[in-house]
Amino acid sequence: MSDKQVRDYDKFMLRLPDGMRDSIADLAKKHGRSMNAQIVHILEEYITPPKVDDMPYLTDAELKSSDKVQEWMNVLSEKISIIEKVVKKNFPE
Fold first, then answer.
1. Which residue intervals of the chain are DSSP H helices?
2. Do 69 and 39 share a structural domain?
3. Which residues have C-beta within 8 Å of that of residue 55, sequence separation ≥ 6?
4. In whole angstroms, what is the distance from residue 17 CA to residue 24 CA?
């Protein structure tokens, strides 16, 4: 992490619906985190989209190889799946 002291971090008071504190405590215990670390983890998961690296260009020689083209298409398919999950999570219908 960083060299910041706890007092240097932003603080935010939060009211939770009945039962949510217990749910967070259970999740934190399950994952070996403090409740604060669990809440931060959940927020980071939600607001930080996964990184999708640029797709490499195939060379003329690679375009002639069906194996290379198939491999490239598999990578593209994985990246599309990641993007679809992010869109569904952040923009539910």
1. 20-31, 35-47, 60-63, 66-90
2. no
3. 72, 75, 76, 79
4. 11
